Amino acid sequence: MNIRLFSTFIVLSVFISSFSCSNKANRSRKPAVRITAESVHKKIVYGDDINIGISVKVKDGELKETNIYVDSVLITSNKNAEFTYTLKGFKSIGKHTIKAQAVKSDGVEGVYFKTFEVLSDVVPEKYGYELVQSYPHNETSFTEGLEIHNGFLYESTGENGKSFLLKNNLKTGQTVKSVKLADKYFGEGITIFNNRIFQLTYKTKIGFIYDLESLALVDSFSFESSEGWGMTHDEKYLIMDDGANVLTYLDPITLKTVKKLQVYDDKDAVVYLNELEYSDGYIYANIWTTNLIAKIDPQTGKVVAKIDLDGILSMPNPNKQVGELNGIAIDPVTKKMYVTGKFYPKLFEIKLVKKG
User: Fold this and answer.
1) Comparing C-alpha atoms, which of 208, 210, 49, 18 is closest to residue 116?
2) Domain boundaries along the sequence of the chain
3) Which candidate in 7, 71, 178, 273 could, as Cys together with 241 as Cys, close a disulfide (CB 3.0–4.6 Å)?
């Protein structure tokens, strides 16, 4: 390379470098936002006023405005660098997201998020039980779904290769009709709605629909939850859970998600919701790995009572395999409550007894 060409190369390189650095220095920087969310309680409680504090720092240029969203809904806009907005009497339990979108006059924006959690304002009542009567139950059944309709006990059982939909005689435990699921499916919760039986499966995100009278398979559907656990229905929707603390409502025709409801008590999210039953305006849910049943207000997601069924099963033979309590069926006519569990030899009719 000759000297003239080398000199030209050096000058050009310096010019390009200078231009690049100058451009970088003039680049507009995003505003930074600090978000706080507080109430009068140490932890935010249903019905509290929630004070959302916003502090915006702009290193260059001017702040145009800051938009505040709660759960994707715009609640306020403000031109000040620091301000507080109060959500009056916030009545939605569970986890929620605040989004702050700070916009400068040149259009550059900074977007920041903060979550807050709202607990129930209700201390759950405590209930025990009175054993009314017990009936035979197939101790090889890995019970995942339970429901009573017209005096018969309908049951869904789990485990791959061993999953069935059963129609049983309530008093004798004998199976009247049965449908075996393909080995790849692990049966889960069921519910009976509009002369159809809806059944979930565990990890395949597939549900089945059967004719109530014949138990013939008439259709299938997919659901968005990663897993299927319990299932029930109210007067309008199917309701399912996936083992977390969320109840998902499905349209019974389209089988699409309509809404979701978070379940909390006065201390925390109530997780591991399993088999479900709806009766007289409340949802009852087994809590997996425990002998507890949560009574849930479906209008709010608050747990209004916890039912302790500890000691309901005494196993005379310690070598018998038995799983956790799982299965709640309330007769819509008599209002009698029945419970059982995985590999339980008995189905129990119980009455709830308030403690204290």
Assistant:
1) 49
2) 32-118, 125-354
3) 273
Whole-angstrom Cα distance, residue 82 to residue 62?
14
CA Rg value for the chain: 29
Distance CA 106, CA 200 (A): 53
Q: Which residues contact 253 (CB under 8 A, 6 or more apart)?
A: none
State pTM to two decimals: 0.89
Provide the CB-side half-sphere exposure for 61 (13 A, CA). 20
- Any idea what DSSP says for residue 124? P
Question: What is the domain class of 32-118 according to CATH?
Answer: mainly beta
Strand partners, 308: 292
Q: Mean pLDDT in each 10-residue stretch from start to end of the chain (356 residues)?
A: 48 45 67 96 96 96 96 96 97 97 95 97 97 95 96 96 97 96 97 97 97 97 96 98 97 96 98 98 97 97 97 72 92 96 95 92
CATH code, 125-354: 2.120.10.30
- Tell me which amino acid residue 19 is: F
Residue whose pair of structure tokens reads 């565990």 in the numeric block: 202
Residue with the two structure tokens 């209004």: 304
Whole-angstrom Cα distance, residue 196 to residue 217? 10
78 is written with which tokens? 């403000």
Beta strands 303-308 and 125-136, pairing class: parallel
Three-state SS for 54-70 is: EEEECCCCCEEEEEEEE
C-alpha 218: how far from its chain's center? 28
